[in-house]
Amino acid sequence: MSALAWALVAVPLAAGALLGLTGRRWNRQAPALGVAAAAVTLVLAVAAALLRPAASTPLLAGIEAGLRVDGLSAVTALTVAAVTVAVLVFAAGELGREANRGRFFGLMLLFAGSMLVTVTATTLPPLLMAWEAMGATSWALIGYRWQEPQRVRAADVAFLTTRTADLGLYLAAGAALAGGVGSLRLDELPTAASPWLHVAAAGVVVAALGKSAQLPFSFWLSRAMEGPSPVSALLHSAAMVAAGAYLLLRLVPLQAAAGWAGPLVAWAGAGTALLLGLVAVAQTDLKQLLAASTAAQVGFMVLGAGCAAVAAGTTQFVAHAATKAGLFLAAGAWLSALGTKRLPALRGAARTHPVVGGAFTVGALALAGLPPLSLWAAKDEVLAAARVHGWALYAVGLAAAVVSALYSVKALWYVWRPLPRNAADGYDTEGPGTRRVTRLMRAPLLVLAFAAATLGVLALPGPADRLRTLVGDTGGPSPQPWEAALSAGAALAAAAFAWWRGPRPLPASGRAAGWAADWLGLERAARTLVVRPVTALAQLLADLDDRVIDAAVRRLALGGLSAARLTARFDAGGIDALVGAVAAGARRLGRWARRPQTGLLHQYYAQAVIGLAALLLLVLLMG
Amino acid sequence: MLSVIVFLPLVACAALLLVRLRDRTYIQVWIAVAAADLLLVLVAWLGFRTGGGLQYEQRLRWIPGAGVSYHVGVDGLSLPLVALTCLLFLAVAVHSLGEERRVRSYVCLFLFLQTVCLGLFAAQDLILFFVFFDLSIVGMFFVIAGWGHGERGRAAALKFFLYTFVGSLALLLGFIGLYLAATPHTFDLVELTRADPLAGRGAYGALVLLAVGVGLAVKTPTVPFHTWLPPAHTEAPAAGSAILAGILLKMGTYGLVRIAMPLLPASWRDYALVFIVVGAVSAVYGALVALAQTDFKRMIAYTSVNHMGYVVLAAGAAGVLAGTDAGARALAVTGAVTQMVSHGLITGALFLIAGVLHDRGATYEMDAYSGLAGPSPRLAAATGVAAFASLGIPGFSGFIAEFQIFTGSLASQAVATAVAVTGIVITAALFLRALRGMFLGPVRLPSSVGANGFRDLATAETLSIVPLLALALVIGVAPRLLLDVVEPASRVLVGLVSR
């Protein structure tokens, strides 16, 4: 059984690494190989969902690297694997011969494989490993077209932002160990001793909010749009952004044990759902609109996790994955065909490309929360849980649902406008379009649109109960009929209003609209509050290093040198001079001693007489 | 067996001095000797009983009157470093295939250095340790002065020599302090560890720890004793830099776990906070200063200060008994040893890459390059992998090391550890900036690059860089290979510190 668990993650990771290493060498075969690996992974995911394998191996002292497919993992892993297949089939149709397809498909498989490890890990280390590996592969995917500096810069922003939040998981691991959870098992985290329990919970919450692009980290998602469309489709639906929501759903018991974490997470989710929804309304670029809507829709999952509604959050996860992957692929199809993602330029795009347009319409209507499509039902499950936690939370959630109808219909309004006569003038803003959508690109669109429309069944009483049992979340609140009616009515009304208003669904002042269009100025704030001070500090310390610390060492060395010079002078002028003086004195004495030695006998006699006289005098004086 | 491993390079060095060969043959002989030595270490590794304490021990009388003997042996702390030394010297030998300046002296010098490095990690006697410690400074001085970048190279070599030599004198003072405290007087590491001669002698122990600590801190180097490192690296040849960062820096941190912690346990516990703070400050300071660099090699040099800071932090955390359990402290020590190995592999590779860059463009200035991934995709891929490995991405050894260090240290000193953790974001920022600036974007080459453009990695260069990164990957994915050897020794060390 454990072999199946290993195979589920090893197949995409190994295939991805191999394909990535081949680069352009197998450029022709790379798409087929990539899709095949993804398909095998999907088969393994289905098998794993049925058989529920578990595996474990020692990693660090007393800490295992465990994988297990339980109910929640089964649902999420299936979603990840299915969306990966759809996205890779699309990419096989989109990516031309000139692209480095080995690198692209290899990285996509590594990315998906990391997500699969994330959703099946039972201990913190493998979860964190996959979590960070996903961030690194997302960097390489967003910056896939590395020749263009702004894309690489966007990749840097995305990676650095999410990694900053990831520090939370490092701290959580340390706190868990300090709190007595030596195994670092996810299901034992709630037993950590206080205060470490709270540190662990805080770390997990920060990391999850960062990965899921919730407030205040949302801005990286905007920059992530610089990646190719299939990357956006996977990153925004079932992987990466969804990973944070998954982690919060998985660690609901930890939030409950910490007490404060649940309400905080719920409000962060609700706030993001509303505010980023408004950001989406203000966008004039289709991919940017969809990106902001991702943060908003993931906000509903986070809201569900904060309210301990695991089943509701999971339903939203699955429904949103299908919907958003389809929408991004549709946007990608237009981008590749028409060379633009600007909404005004996409007027009439649904009419010229009816298959893409149809799929996009189904997805957008689901995103708008219109009954009976999937996200309407999923969102109601979340809102029902929110209502139990307070009317204020429910009201914000409902408002966010209304806003989602506004931005979805805004996008629809544009693509269904009559085709302007000079439509082609607005095309090719991003690059030359191919003007056609291949069959390989259309097929996954239709599949995903179908899923987006129908996955609402997960919220019907029968399947919903099955799902609740599956993820171990029985006894939670279900939406009352009036709630479903209210949200449906509100969504329909908002949709009608937005259709009537057209390009500007909300009457807003220029400044507010500009603020929303700029993603609430979050990136600028991060630059002002974090990046610039850190860079300045780095420069300051580098100067300090040269001018003070190293200068002190140099001064010390110079001090030693001058001390040596001083000693040398003392040596020459003092000691050596003294030695010289002694020598000179001795020489002078010698010279004096030589004087009496004249060789004349009478002088010696005279000297002897003087000497004897002196002796006599001495004896007399002493006596 | 161990003595053969240690002295095989020196014997080869002596033999090469006697015969006259073609330049390339010298290097081929060197590669053969390094490979043979690596093979011997692999055999020793396979025969090593994990958890069996000191093995392959050998003790000969040397200066019995002064309590000095030739005593060598390896345990779980030193065997990985012995293996790393052999691997890195082999990589450097392969990388040096293109060397043309005074090849015989160059080869002999590196063979001599290899014996010195191996001897240091095998030494079980303080004087033996000290001799190898000092000889490593001598050897590296000649490498930087003789094969570095001209006049500035000689100045940097002199600075390196004087600074680290002063550090080694402090170390010697500490050793003599230990010798005098023991009865009977001895320099033997095993006997000193058993005797714990400074137990209960507060001020004396503190002074000895100060001397040993300063000596090792200069070599590691930690802030504020690190300023010899950037010029030494910038001016050294690629092979010298790789050895300096990969092996010589480890002598400092290895000294902490081999000498300072087990021989001075009481003082270590009393002053653990000093090491924790120095480690955390080095980690963050090194990362921040690295972020401000414009010179690729200087930047990597400062990231070494960051990485070694983590090691010192973990060693310090292992001295805090309150509020921690032995498991967490052993995890920190294991992380520290893993970090030594990991840093040797990854930074060794990065310095070899810097050498390739200098070979093509004659400058390390990052602004001089752009879009190198175009003309040299293999170099770009290797640098990308090395950069991500160095910034601690999971799947490579750096993550295994840093995760254990952070997780094991948090309980000891939560604030310092939390501060140190931010280093991994700063290193991420600086490596991403370097990758973006030099390798991605539109192609721009320095004017010094000839008409044939920017050559991609040659075979010898690939063969020297890729195995290092591959091993970092193996350790990152299957860490048990390394940890099975290290963990028992870490537990023993933690037990020694807490007695």
Automatic annotation (TrEMBL), chain A:
Chief place of localization: membrane
InterPro entries: ND/Mrp_TM, NU5C-like
Source domain of life: Bacteria
Keywords: Membrane, Transmembrane, Transmembrane helix, Ubiquinone
TM region positions: 6-23, 30-51, 71-92, 104-122, 128-146, 167-184, 196-221, 233-252, 264-282, 289-311, 317-340, 352-371, 391-413, 445-464, 484-502, 604-622
Name this polypeptide is given: NADH:ubiquinone oxidoreductase subunit 5 (Chain L)/Multisubunit Na+/H+ antiporter, MnhA subunit
Any coiled-coil regions, as ranges: none
Automatic annotation (TrEMBL), chain B:
GO terms (BP aspect): ATP synthesis coupled electron transport; electron transport coupled proton transport
Molecular function, one GO term: NADH dehydrogenase (ubiquinone) activity
Membrane topology, from the record: Multi-pass membrane protein
Domain NADH:quinone oxidoreductase/Mrp antiporter transmembrane: 123-427
Pfam families from the UniProt entry: Proton_antipo_M
Keyword Cell cycle belongs to the record: no
Keywords: Membrane, Transmembrane, Transmembrane helix
One cellular component term from this protein's GO annotations in UniProt: membrane
Residue stretches spanning the membrane: 6-22, 29-48, 68-94, 106-123, 129-148, 160-182, 202-218, 238-259, 271-292, 299-320, 340-358, 379-401, 413-435
Main localization, broad class: membrane
Location of this chain's protein in the cell: Endomembrane system; Membrane
Keyword Cytoplasm: no
Family, per entry: Belongs to the complex I subunit 4 family.
Classification via PANTHER family: NADH-UBIQUINONE OXIDOREDUCTASE CHAIN 4
NCBIfam families: NDH_I_M
Protein name, as recorded: NADH-quinone oxidoreductase subunit M
